[in-house]
Every structure is written in structure tokens, then in C-alpha cells.
Design a protein that fits this description.
This protein is an alpha/beta fold and 234 residues long. Helix content is 53%, strand content 11%. It has two domains: 2-62, no CATH class; 70-231, P-loop containing nucleotide triphosphate hydrolases (Rossmann fold), CATH 3.40.50. The chain contains ten helices and five strands, in the order H-H-H-H-H-E-H-E-H-H-E-H-E-H-E. The chain starts with a helix and ends with a strand.
Length: 234
Amino acid sequence: MLDDALAALYAANLGPMADALKDWVADARNQKRSHTACVQALVEALLQHRLASRTRSFRRRAVLPDHVALPEVWASGTRGLTEEQLGNLATCDWVRQGHTLVVTGPTQSGKSYLATALAQEAVVKRLTTTYIRVPEWLAECAEAESRKAVTECILKLVKPALLVLDDFATELATSEEGHLLRRLLDERQRRKKATLIASPTPMEAWDQQFEDPIAADAIVGRSIRAFCRICLTV
């Protein structure tokens, strides 16, 4: 009878429920439990499997590494990131509300790890997330064969609930590159989408990283008004 039930579940593409049923039967503690409890356990197993599958799908689309996790982030007042700040950011309410977060700090300060860990947390909460390194994205735009293709590059990054811009302001941006970044940030702000900017360059020096002063003023001005600014130390 058990074999028939398992076969039926597998045939209906309900493998997680079938596996949970085998585990249930094998556990002697369940012998005196009700059939209702068994059904509830099977349904919970299926729901957990589907949630994990959706999370993996979100993670693949975000192109995030698997080894990064928010609990591994070291928070300390002397480091520039308090436990309270980290806890507030972990809720991802700032993502849902479309705020901007700026994380700066020298090499080896952990800014990229923090940015990626926060992105992972957004993925777990099923918020669409995209992570890019700005120099690579600008190079991709430069290789686009038409202005329409460049616009498509921008529009693709406007859609996610959270966009992580890592390695921001690491190189001198040309007038065209500054214009592209300004368009991207303007459009995300207009649509109330959250943006996380991670940079090794102090925000006070960002205006020196843009050839076009108008683009620099616009980008720096929006960043200064960010919901939260974190300056990490080594």
C-alpha cells in the first residue's frame, strides 16, 4: 500500500511529498500520530521545497555567490556598522520602500561582502535582485551596437526591486558613462526602486571620478540623500 502511494506521488510530480512520506513512516515516533498530522507534514514538505526552489531561481537570476551569508557579517561600532543598523537592513524594508543605500570603504573592508549578503537576504525574502560590477556593465554598454541596445541595457536594470552597483566610482567615467549611470539612477529613483551602491572611493571624492561635472553633481547629490550611508573601516 505504501509503495502504491509513493508511486502515485512520484507520478504526479510530488516527489518532495513522497520523500517526506517515506521519512514519516520510517520514524517510529509517528506511529501513534494521526493521519491529519501526516498530511500536514507532507504539505509542509512540499511548500518548503517550492520555497527553496523559488529562492534558488531568484539567486540564479541575481548571479550571486552561494558562500555569502548575512549572519557572517561582522558588525561593530568601531567598524562603521552597528548591530542595530545591520538588523534594520536585514528586514529589507528599505528595499520594499525603494531607498538607496551607500556602502564605502577601502579594499578588504568587506563592503562587497556586505553588499552581496544584503542582496542574498533580499533574494531569500523573494525580492527580485540584480548584482553588477559597474566597470563591467559600462564596458558592456560601450560594446552595444546601437543606442537602442544601450537603452535595453538600462531598462533591464530598472526592473529589479534591488540593484547592487559594486565597484562604483573606481575609475574615471567618461561623459557618456556618467550620462548612462545618471540615467540608470534617475530611472530607478523615479520608479521607487532600491539601489545599493558599494564603492572603495569615499563619497566626498566621487565628483573627481566623473568627466562630466553635471552628471557628477546629479549622481553625488542623489547619493548624499541616501536612506543610509555606511563607511566601513579595515
